[in-house]
Amino acid sequence: MADERRAFSAPTPARSAGDPQAEVPAWASGPSDARVRELAAKPLDVQRRHHPGQWVSAAIVIGFVAWLVKTLAENKLISWSTVGHYLFSPDILHGLLGTLELTGVSMALAIVLGFILAALGASTNPVLVWFVRGYVWIFRGVPLIVQLLAWYNLALVFPVLAIGLPFTSWHLQSATNTVVTPFMAAILGLGLHEAAYMAEIVRAGLVAVPHGQTEAALSVGLTRRQAVRTVVLPQTLRVIVPPTGNQLVGLLKASALVYVIGGVELLTTAQRIYSVNFEVMALLIVASIWYLTVVSVLTIGQHFLERRLDRDRVGGDRSAGPAANPDLTGIDPQL
CB neighbours of 190 closer than 8 A, spacing ≥ 6? Predict the structure, then answer.
């Protein structure tokens, strides 16, 4: 056995230079460093496949859009001069400001209530859980226009609104029509309706973060508040922000329903103007232009906010980092 081990561990004798087995083929030695640098400096050209169907469909779409634009531009029934006249008129801008106010205040109310409802829904108390489920069921199930009309006509059920301190004579009361103005009814209708959707969005964001990450953060010495702020919240926001941006855009467009209760917003202002000059299509085009403008601004802001939140996912924002090193300097040749 000792002889066998000695024979097995004996070093292999070196081959002479003339031995054909000593010659290493070119494919085994690999390309030289100069060749590797040359290939890295001149990457291969991408050969694109030709798709005639895509070119034909693109030509059809471009032709249709060009025909539509030409037809609308030459249509004498659309008064484009009226569009230009009212596009920046004070009345339209005042209605636009009302739309922005309704959207901003309602969305702020919806976000706050959404987080509160999501926190209550995550409680171990079944009463709170069923309360949240009932709230979401009612405010998501009833159409928004019905909720707006209900809040606007609240005085039919509660003619007077009063608030006071228990066991004291101090109280405040006022007529419901004085408190619930069209603007307040619009805020309540839009905000409470949107809060039901935000509660589900926040709940989905909280569920998306595994509970083990919170336990891991606590195990390394972080307090629960630090764990929520530095570990849970950034990951939750990545899930919450995209649908919240979509809900904000939807809320902006849904604010046009306020016209049924006489609220001051963009569409209501346009309707009041074309009820006098009968330029219906021109004023609707003006309102559409401003809606598209605001939605475009919100979409751009959402895009940059999502990029800001995603920069830490792979260890920082690498989109602005240094370019690839074409000469492969600093690369270990043993790799």
Answer: 102, 103, 106, 110, 144, 148, 251, 254, 255, 258
